[in-house]
Prior knowledge:
Elements: H1 13-26, H2 38-45, H3 64-115, E1 119-120, H4 126-132, E2 139-144, H5 151-166, E3 171-176, H6 177-180, E4 191-196, E5 199-205, H7 217-226, H8 234-273
Parallel strand pairs: 1-3, 2-3
Antiparallel strand pairs: 2-4, 4-5
Amino acid sequence: LTRGCTCRSRCCCTTCCVVVSHVAMDTTYRTADGVVTEWDDLQRKFGNLPEREAPWRPESYVPRRERDEVVSQEARWAEKERAEEEEEDVESDDEDAFLNAYRKQRMEEMRQKRVLVAEVVRKVDWREKITERSRSKRVIVHLRDQDRGNEIDSSMSEAVDALVARYPDVGFVHCEAKETVPNFPARNLPAILVYCDGKVETTLAGKSAFGGKKCTAEELAYTLNSAGAFGYSPQKQKEQAEALMKEYLAKMVEERQNKAMGSNQVEGQVEEEE
C-alpha cells in the first residue's frame, strides 16, 4: 500500500496515489509574508501559473494626532508657498508698473527736450506766429545773424532756448535778420523784440545790452525782466529780479570753484611729473 493510503483494496491504491501526487503538484505553499515556493517560481517561469501578486502589507500605524499634525504642517507649507508666489507676482507687477512709469516719464522728458526750444520763424510766417500770436500771449523775438559766428550770437541762441521751458506763458522765437528784417542794422544785432497785442512793446538791441561778449540764460532773463518783457507786476518783477540775481551769483561762485579745482589738479599733475 502507498504510505498514507487508508484504502484496504489493492485496486484502488494506484488511484489514491495518483490523486495524492496530483494534489501535491497543485499545492502552493506560502509563507507568512506571501512568498511562494521555488516550485511555483518554476511553474510561473514556464507559463503554467499567472504572475505573482504584490504581497499585501498593512499600512504602518500612525496615531491620529500625528496624522493631523502632518496634514496641518503640509497645509501650512502649501499656504506659505502660495503666499510667496503671490508676493512674487505682486512684486513683479510693481516692478513692471514702475519700469513702465519710468519709461513713460523719460520719453516725455525727451519729447519735451526736443520740443521746448525756440521755434525758428521765417518771414512768410511772421504775421501768424508773431503778430497774431502776441494777441494771446507775449512773444519774444530773437533777431540774429548766425553767419557771423560771434560768441554773443551763439550764446544768445542758447540762452533763449533755455528760457522756453522756464517761462511757458511767453513765446520765444528765433528769426534770421537778413531774411525777416533785411533793413535791420547789423551793428544792432543781436536784438530782442517784445511783441504784445500785435505790436512791438520793447526793443533791446546790440551786444552791449546783453553783457558784451557772452550772454547766459540767467543774464538774459534778468535783462528781460528788468525791461518788463514778461509783463509782471512791479512787485513780482522785483521778486523775480532778486531771485535771478541770487541764481546768477550762485552759478558764478560754482564756476569759479570748479575752475579753481581744475587748476589745482593741473598743478598737482605737473608737480608729480617733475
